[in-house]
Write a structure and sequence with these properties.
Layout lengths: L9 E4 L2 E3 L7 E2 L1 E5 L2 E6 L1 H4 L8 E4 L4 E4 L1 E3 L4 H7 L3 E2 L6 H12 L8 E6 L16 H4 L8 E5 L3 E4 L1 H7 L11 E5 L5 E7 L3 H4 L7 H17 L2 E9 L1 H19 L11 E6 L10 H10 L11 E3 L2 E4 L29 H14 L3 E5 L2 H17 L8 E4 L5 H9 L3 E4 L1 H20 L5 H7 L3 E3 L11 H10 L16 H7 L2 H6 L17 E4 L16 E6 L2 E5 L5
Parallel strand pairs: 1-6, 2-7, 8-15, 9-10, 10-11, 15-16, 16-17, 18-19, 19-20, 20-21, 21-22
Antiparallel strand pairs: 1-4, 2-3, 4-5, 7-23, 11-12, 12-14, 13-14, 23-24, 24-25
Length: 562
């Protein structure tokens, strides 16, 4: 019988390591064995631990941080998007149509053309600036293909071919919780908001298992570029959950056969099954049966793939004017009815989840929606206690004082997206005005109230998953135009980093596994090109990841590392 060599597999040294752990909050070196952290400390303490087989890597004084946990990240959709037309950089509807025209030239007639990521806030070259695209923009690009172009959030634009396939005509009524865009004469203009998107999206061919697995692998590679080592992917359907399991299983089989490195996949995956507030064709009874029939609940899994909570939704978003608000959006005279779940229904669903041991994360943007959701959570927590519940409000734009107090009392987390603040920060003033914008994603209020705050990207509903852009927005409260958005809601650099690392682990019950760099925890970390804690504020958003490590194995290196 051979004894296991007690020396580490790897030592990283000559670094500036910020661990976010109470013991050794800053260190020079870190020792790793079997994918976990064996020791953290000074070079002089750790270098003597090296054995004959230990790899020793001098980081040359670079900064090391815990791996990023993006706890609201549609990784699978990102992978799918990488196979579609990328519209993020388009500066006008005309530029979008050039891309459609180019794709149409190589796509067989009758096949779908899909693009993602357009944002009218980027349309500086449009006439007028910010003009929304319509079917009359797309139709000249192709009349041989159905075309669906997804805005970064909650609105699609389609061409006339797609409208015909969906049966949308002048006489088609708006669906509950959605809106069909129309011209002055009442004709559909190709814009589909909120629930109306499903008229066309439901016509898209469902991707095969092979296509989904490819998308997951592409999404993982994309996340590693930004230092993201864990994600929580919300709102997944059974065939998507099966794809995640298949990818991890195949990676573990290859690992066991000795065909790969020591990690089966390059991102740790937490998944949230879709539940209430999405597909209209699924009845409440069917969804209730799904949750009850699984026989499992939040937390099932291992360090590579784990079940998170159930994903719900109550409304839309502000920039698409589909959030559930108390008062009309700026420039409008009436309040839109974008409520997907009434208060009684909310309580019934929350109570079911609580009884079954499921956490709930619910998409909530409007101020009225937020009060409804938090009131329902609080009522259920009082009547059906579950002290270890990890419920959370996703987006959490406009909390009232009552909501803040109840979230703190019942440990309901706020899962916010500072990426929205950065890339569409000016739109919030356009949509809700100065007074309401002063309470937009109020990170300082959440922390001061004692609410667990998680910062995430919600990619692909934004431009990039870059966490350092998000941290810049949290620390400075500036958007991409340099304008302040609720400046008094700025938080410290450490608070921002914790929101992107340690705090997310609370949602998934993984505080013991990751988030900080401490003995016994997973060796998930990143090396960056400058010191996050000491660079001037304006440079935070320019920080680049040089190396990403998962389980002690390098999964990404930038060319700057040689």
């Amino acid at each position: 019988m051979q004894l296991r060599d007690l020396s580490p597999d790897l030592i990283l040294h000559n670094a500036v390591i910020y661990t976010l752990a109470s013991r050794n909050p800053q260190a020079q070196a870190i020792a790793i064995q079997d994918g976990r952290i064996m020791a953290v400390g000074a070079d002089a303490e750790l270098l003597p631990l090296a054995g004959p087989a230990t790899r020793v890597h001098n980081l040359g004084g670079r900064t090391v941080l815990p791996g990023i946990f993006d706890s609201h990240n549609h990784l699978l959709q990102v992978g799918v998007k990488l196979t579609r037309i990328r519209l993020d950089e388009c500066r006008s509807p005309e530029e979008m149509m050039e891309l459609v025209r180019a794709r149409a030239a190589v796509t067989p007639p009758g096949h779908w053309i899909v693009g993602e990521g357009w944002n009218e806030g980027n349309f500086s070259e449009a006439n007028p600036p910010g003009r929304l695209p319509t079917r009359w923009d797309i139709d000249p690009a192709t009349d041989q293909h159905p075309v669906l172009l997804m805005r970064f959030f909650n609105t699609d634009v389609v061409n006339s071919v797609a409208l015909r396939l969906a049966g949308i005509t002048r006489g088609t009524p708006n669906p509950p919780g959605g809106e069909i865009g129309r011209d002055a004469a009442g004709e559909p203009n190709g814009l589909l908001r909120a629930a109306a998107k499903l008229f066309v999206r439901n016509l898209l061919p469902q991707p095969t298992l092979t296509e989904l697995k490819t998308a997951i692998r592409l999404g993982c590679q994309e996340m590693n570029r930004y230092g993201i080592t864990s994600v929580l992917d919300p709102g997944l359907y059974p065939h998507e959950l099966a794809a995640y399991q298949a990818v991890v299983r195949e990676g573990q089989s290859a690992q066991d056969a000795g065909r790969t490195a020591a990690v089966p996949i390059s991102v740790r995956l937490n998944v949230m099954p879709s539940w209430h507030g999405f597909r209209e064709e699924e009845t409440a009874a069917e969804l209730e049966a799904r949750a009850r029939g699984l026989g499992v609940a939040s937390g099932l899994g291992d360090e590579w793939l784990r079940l998170g909570g159930l994903k719900m939704a109550i409304d839309g978003g502000t920039s698409s004017h589909t959030a559930l608000m108390y008062a009309p959006f700026e420039g409008e005279t009436s309040v839109g009815d974008f409520n997907r779940l009434d208060p009684q229904t909310l309580r019934r669903h929350f109570r079911t989840a609580q009884e079954l041991g499921w956490d709930v994360g619910i998409h909530t943007c409007g101020d009225r929606a937020m009060d409804m959701v938090v009131d329902a959570f609080a009522d259920v927590a009082a009547s059906t206690p579950w002290p270890d519940a990890r419920h959370n409000v996703i987006h959490a734009y406009f909390p009232s004082e009552r909501a803040l107090a109840q979230m703190a009392e019942h440990r309901i987390a706020a899962v916010i997206q500072p990426t929205f603040l950065y890339w569409e920060g000016d739109l919030i003033f356009r949509d809700v005005g100065e007074r309401r914008a002063a309470n937009y994603k109020p990170a300082r209020k959440y922390l001061d109230a004692g609410v667990v705050l998680c910062a995430t990207s919600d990619i692909p509903s934004t431009v990039s998953p870059d966490p350092f852009v998000g941290m810049y927005a949290l620390v400075t409260r500036k958007n991409n135009l340099g304008h302040y958005v609720a400046a008094d809601q700025a938080i410290s650099r450490e608070e921002a980093l914790r929101a992107y690392t340690v705090n997310g682990t609370w949602l998934t019950r993984e505080e013991h596994l990751k988030g900080a760099l401490a003995i016994g925890k997973l060796a998930d970390l990143i090396v960056i090109d400058r010191n996050y804690f000491t660079v001037p504020e304006e440079q935070i958003k320019e920080i680049r990841v040089l190396m990403t490590m998962v389980g002690g194995e390098v999964v990404y290196t930038a060319s700057a590392t040689g």
